[in-house]
Input
Amino acid sequence: MKIITLLNEKGGVGKTTLATHIAAGLAIKGYRVILADADPQGHATVALGANRAPGLYDLLVRDASFRDVLVTIPTNRYQIPGHDVTGALYVVPSNEETRAIPLMTSDTLVVLNRFKELENTVDVVIFDTSPTPSLLHGSIYLASHAIVYPTECEYLSLDGLAQSFKHRDMVQPLRDQQGLGKLDIMGIIPTKYRASTLLHASNLERLQKAFGEKVWTPLALATIWGEASSQRRPVFNLAPESKAAAEVWHIVERVQENIA
Output
């Protein structure tokens, strides 16, 4: 089982959009996937048509069973029209109670220990996170195998990216103590990209110089993203022939390559 976290300490950069698309895409490809919503806004939950609920809180604080908190996402909500889904997608939902998790438990290994229970039943766990760093983030860092960093090619998003790297490095000694190994950067994904602007082009070039192949192909700014969000469906379900669907499907394939 692989645990992958979407993270950037700047809001609005596409964490939830990418988390839901990666989770749904891997389910389409045959993986048993859990999307764990760790943002009190619960947007990853509602993005796939589920209702906000204290699922993550119940799991980590009230010691609820996974059976009691998992929500199954119907395949017609995310499948590519005309193609069968060979895996399965579940959500651990979130609501405002998620904000209180760090106040209600001091166990930094709680995420790691709870999700270890899924070792033989789930292939991939995708965590969506809030932009505000907390002790919950630290616990998710300890549980994760790799992180995907969405970022816009603009100053505040790149600053959030830098802060995220700093906090990842701060957690590494704790991972070493637990024998958890290095927390990898799986990929950095430029989002809402406008190739025609000098700002975005120059910032993308800087990212590529700094991180090389860790910087994946950008996702272009397009209105279809907003339309898909309003329908609470992935773009490859709503508009499978769109350029956006092709771009995000390429990201799903990159993730699959990294977990194979």
